[in-house]
Amino acid sequence: MNDDMTCPEPEPGTAAPEATGAGINGEEPVSPEGGTGPEQAEAMGAAGETVNLTEEINSLRAEVENKTAALAELQQRYLRLQADFDNYRKRTRREQEELIRMAAARLITSLLPVLDNLERALAAATDNKAEGLATGVEMTLRQLKEILAQEGLTTVAALGQPFNPELHEAVAMEETEDPEQANLVVAELRRGYILKGKLLRPAMVKVAVAGATVKENGQEVDKDE
Questions:
Q1: Residue 200 pairs with which residues in a beta bridge?
Q2: DSSP summary character for residue 34
Q3: Which segments within the chain are labelled E, that is strand?
Q4: Of 146, 134, 140, nearest to 119 (Cα)?
Q5: Which pTM value belongs to this model?
Q6: How many Cα atoms within 13 Å fall on the side-chain side of residue 132?
Q7: Would you identify the CATH topology of the domain 153-214?
Q8: CA distance 19 to 15
Q9: CATH 2.30.22.10 domain position(s) in the chain
Q10: DSSP type of residue 170
Q11: Which intervals of the chain are annotated as region Disordered (predicted)?
Q12: What are the tens digits of pLDDT across the range 167-196?
């Protein structure tokens, strides 16, 4: 009898037992690195996810810092623009005030010769020199019209024109037998003026009307009176 122990051979028709990965006593095989295979794979996956999250956090932090810096720059630009606008508004107001002052000074300076002529006309009237008075008044009127025309003043066309309530103020009416003369201005009682396209004062006029009754100064007057 042989002392070596041998495994019994399987009987004919019986399958040999399959080899399993279990070690002795059913334990998992140990990897050469000293850890189990599935645990090592799980640890490596977790480490990779941590690296990705760290990179993403760093990227977001850098983006936030860039946005914060850009916002600060925009705020500084806004403050500078606001200061520039305030300075521009103040400068514009000062310039407008200066222009008004200069315009008034220019107008007054232009009117000084008119005052001189008025004084001469008054002196002539005091000396009972009618001819000198008429000449002085004529010079004064001509100079005044020239100065005001240079400032953009024009007269309202009235005499012989169709009555226009936007330019004329009818204070009297006059009956006419000519139908073509109806509603025309037949007399200018006070001249009207326009300054640079804007009406300053309407012309005070008398208007021709066709009818038995006319009005003067708002009162009805019979034509036979």
A1: none
A2: S
A3: 153-155, 168-175, 185-190, 193-195, 198-201, 203-209, 213-216, 219-222
A4: 140
A5: 0.46
A6: 13
A7: Nucleotide Exchange Factor Grpe; Chain A, domain 2 (2.30.22)
A8: 12
A9: 153-214
A10: E
A11: 1-45
A12: 999 999 999 888 888 999 999 999 889 888
